Amino acid sequence: MTSSSRAPRGFSGARRRMLAGAAALPLFALGRSTAAPAIGADPLCGEPAATSRLHVSGASGYLGRLAPRGAPLTLLATTGDGTTPGRLAYRVHHAGRDYVNPTLVLRPGERVRITLDNRLDAPTIAHWHGLAVDTANDGAGLRLAAPRERFAYDFEVRNRGALYWYHPHPHGATARQTYDGLFGVIDVDDDDHAALRRALDLVPGRTELTLVVQDRRRGGYGAGEQHARHGFLGDEAYVNGAPCPFVDAASRAYRLRLLNACNARTLRLAFRTAAGARVPFTVVGNDGGLLPAPVAAQEAFVAAAERLDLVLDLTAAPLGETIVMESLAFDPMHGEVSPADAPAAPDAAPPAAAHDDHVRDGSVAAASATGAPSRVDAAAWPDGGARALMTLRVRERVRYDRRMPATLSRIAPFDTTGARERPLRLGFNKGRWRINDRVFAMGETPIEVARNSTEIWLLRNYHTSMPHAMHLHGFPFEVLERETSPDAVAALAVDAHARLASDLGRKDTVLVWPGESVRVALRFDVPWPGPQTYMFHCHNLEHEDGGMMLGVRVA
Ligand code: C2O
Ligand code: CU
Ligand code: CU
How far is CA 208 from CA 5, 116, 309, in A? Predict the structure, then answer.
């Protein structure tokens, strides 16, 4: 069935109104927001307890913006100094400045030379999530740096402007090392981003804020955590290293560039006023950079490793207003446990039923038979539970009359004529999450692709599954269509192919819900000689470490 022959599904009046709003392009006025339904959201975070101020990336320090401009860097993987969350940190000393988990600011075409210096007591490797590099530079875990060893990267930035990121990728320890604090963002900056900044008068670090969201747990990452069937769930939401921080804002537009750096948690991102009125926003970009055009939205799902680039208009916000950035409640669709096996969760309120069964490989039946939830602390923020993430306090009235540009970037769709379609099924069997019924084996490449070819991958998730955030190294893809999406997802569709605002443009990670099929187009351009190997995996890091990953050989 071709997508173009299919009738639009799930189109709602509400969505048409939102699209019309985007076409008209005045930034949104708060006065027109509708009251949010009561969905059990937390009270404003920080009340009554004081919260911390949002840490904003500066010219050095934690998440500091570092533009190497071709100069070599040494990235030290080491222990943290206690000022940042997590036991571990990446440290860089460059041009007289010290950075922790630096934001690498790069330009297309720039040469990048980074030496990873492993000062951990375990092997590690750094992966550049979203960057199109050869296998030798991908840091996918085929080669590791042993303790006290160095690993040299040397590559060219071939991507368009977007927010990418870096994190460890040693198979089996990726989840723990990432949770422990080893990650940073990569801001590939290009002319389209410069044009957007000019149009909206945005200044990085002031009115353009990069927000790294990570859920953390007071008890830290436990020994059995990597076997958690639903992945690691923290009980607190951290943004740029602090739980539910606040930032002082003026009555103008803000660009928020969000990375979901949670190991496993999907966010259903939305904004509201202190009184509970929903504040709409404009999606301008995602994993692969700026969308062709802005799209109005009330909410967006952001899965683990996904990025969302949005503009929040506070021009109509009265002085003293507080805007809450939150994750709304949703059904996390943990359908992989058959009803007969499901542990009873009598206290959990639907739809966010907490059955955080802690299942190890091969012991599903035994664990289910006990019916005992093995973790109580995870229930503090169950999967799909509502949570305030951050607040923006309007403290200044300013004149602001900029308008959102009608065009943000130009991206030619992939030409898929004659493209081979490859089905990839996501599911759970014999205690393991699997792709095409297989689990990862180092050195094996069950997916073989011809270099410079175009393929269509049909990602199909079983009904008896859970959502999986599927990521391919090396090759940004185009989401062509979604089919049989769950209602909560279908309601957010913005076109006849049931795509979401956050699906448009280019992607490197896409969330596939139970019972859903997502068709993506990929272009395997490989300028490097010889066969190349990449990873295709679920970015729920516990699923990845547990083997929900396949090698891809491009030759
Ligand atoms: Cu974010 Cu295999 O990576
Ligand atoms: Cu990656
Ligand atoms: Cu998964």
Answer: 41, 29, 10
Look at strands 322-327 and 432-435 and give their pairing.
unpaired
Mean pLDDT of the residues in the chain: 87
CA gap 228, 62 in Å, rounded? 30
The phi-psi region of residue 463 (left if phi > 0; otherwise alpha if psi is between -120 and 50; otherwise beta) is alpha
Q: By alpha-carbon position, which residue is closest to atom 1 of ligand 1?
A: 129
**What digits encode the pLDDT tens for the residues 153-165?**
999 999 999 999 9
Cα separation, 501 vs 496, whole angstroms? 12
pTM over 0.70: yes
Ligand 3 (single-atom ion) residues, CB below 5 Å: 468, 538, 540, 543
- How far apart are the CA of 205 and the centre of ligand 2, in A? 26
Pocket lined around ligand 1, Cβ cut-off 6 Å: 127, 129, 167, 169, 305, 471, 473, 535, 537, 539
HSE at residue 276, side-chain half, CA atoms within 13 A, is 9
| Residues around ligand 2, an ion, CB closer than 5 A | 129, 473
**Which residue, 316, 503, 482, is CA-closest to 397?**
316
